[in-house]
Design goal:
InterPro entries: Arrestin-like_N, Arrestin_C-like, Arrestin_domain-protein. The protein is an all-beta fold and about 400 residues long. The protein has one helix and 22 strands.
């Protein structure tokens, strides 16, 4: 979005990452770029980094007053905040001058390791954005730029070990015919529960059909489930599950045995990791549906599958795993929270085009709970503070310690 006030043109927030996609824990850097047709007196230029989630859906409600029905729509909503930080770039105490010409003001910010992935759906979303504010009384200008975050899930670092556990399903059914029982026994097994996009899921089926009933087909599905939590009022909403991939085997005739060994590939996707989001649950499941001939009921079962970004070492077979959508992932390597260096902000913008009055030696990173979106109150003259709508406070304490390897669909 461009600044439209008198004297500005070609204004934008540019990011050094060409894709605008970053891993959690990565340093995001860029520039505020604009041109001035004439000199401008201003009080502060600040950047606000914000990450949060929100959900909203409506449900019909019937109310009866004095015997008269009234139909209304009830809104269910919730908001959650992961960070909301102001970075002071220049000015902030008294007035300074930006001279005519082109200006490029750099900024840097380290994304917290514990934030969830970006996510968008009709019901809820997890979004991240950068807002730049220019305070030049009586004018106040704003630029905004969104960016995406990928929370990388390393399946090897799941402390619960669930991703390394095998999946085993057993289906048993008894049929009676001529005073005898005729059992159907089908076993389905996967060696582990954790995979990455593009990887094959090895599936083994042992079918022992001792009945005269035909097993018409066995369907295998990879599905995604979502669940949304509202806090005003408190409720939950679960939309229909989404089918990501499917395969089938069969038929298996009566009084026969079959053994199948095959592979079902995980679809090419960037699977969002939302375990650190408290209002949106997202999980993946391996479902098996057994179709029997005639009027017999189907048999089905499912087990949770964990889709990560770094595969289990036992599933790579000594090969180097390459994500099938690496062109849509950040170019830089995944940061390690245990070896990440201490982040140091850039100095305040001190180009030759700006007045030297009231400069500081480094940027200020401050929480907006104790400042306006234009900087710390303690560092700004009260005569130059202009209030705007403050961003919402976190509805619950934001996680201080990263817990990126706790996985699973929360029950």
């Amino acid at each position: 979005m461009n600044l439209n006030s008198e004297g500005f043109k070609n204004s934008r927030i540019s990011l050094d990452g060409p894709r605008g996609i970053y891993y959690s824990g990565q340093v995001i850097s860029g520039k505020i770029e604009f041109e001035l047709n004439q000199s401008l007196t201003f009080t502060a230029i600040n950047v606000v980094y914000h990450g949060g989630a929100s959900v909203l859906w409506t449900e019909p409600q019937t109310e009866i007053y004095s015997g008269v029905k009234r139909y209304t729509q009830v809104e269910y909503r919730a908001n959650e905040e992961y960070f909301n930080t102001v970075q002071h770039l220049c000015g902030g105490n008294g007035t300074s001058i930006l001279h005519q010409g082109s200006h490029s003001i750099p900024f840097e910010f380290q994304i917290p390791f514990s934030v969830p992935s970006s996510f968008t759906s009709p019901i809820g979303n997890v979004t991240y954005k950068i807002s730049a504010y220019l305070e030049a009384p009586p004018l106040r200008e704003e630029l905004e730029r969104t960016f995406e975050v990928v929370a990388p899930l390393d399946l090897n670092k799941d402390e619960s070990g669930d991703a390394q556990q095998p999946i085993e399903m057993q289906f048993e059914e008894m049929y009676s015919c001529c005073c005898s029982t005729q059992p159907i026994s089908i076993g389905v097994k996967l060696p582990v529960s954790g995979y990455c996009p593009g990887q094959p899921m090895p599936i083994t089926i042992n079918a022992d059909n001792n009945s005269s009933t035909e097993i018409s087909k066995i369907i295998f599905q990879l599905i995604m489930k979502e669940r949304y939590h509202s806090r005003n009022p408190v409720s939950e909403y679960t939309p229909p599950e989404k089918l990501l991939a499917t395969m089938k085997k069969g038929p298996i005739m009566g009084n026969s045995k079959r053994v199948y060994t095959f592979e079902m590939p995980v679809p090419e996707m960037i699977a969002p990791h939302l375990d650190n989001c408290g209002i949106i649950d997202l999980g993946y499941f391996f479902k098996v549906i057994i179709k029997l001939s005639g009027c017999n009921d189907d048999m089905e079962d499912e087990s949770e599958i964990y889709i990560g970004l770094i595969p289990l070492e036992i599933t790579t077979r000594g090969n180097i795993y390459v994500h099938p959508m690496s062109h849509s992932l950040p170019k830089d390597p995944i940061p390690d929270p245990n070896s990440a260096p201490n982040f140091t902000s850039l100095p305040v913008y001190m180009s030759g085009g700006m007045g030297t009055e009231n400069r500081s030696s480094s940027t200020n990173l401050v929480n907006t709970n104790s400042c306006t979106p234009y900087g710390s109150r303690s560092n700004m003259s009260t005569s130059t503070v202009h209030s705007v709508n403050a961003m919402p406070s976190a509805p619950y304490p934001v996680q201080e310690n990263p817990r990126p390897y706790e996985i699973g669909f929360k029950i």
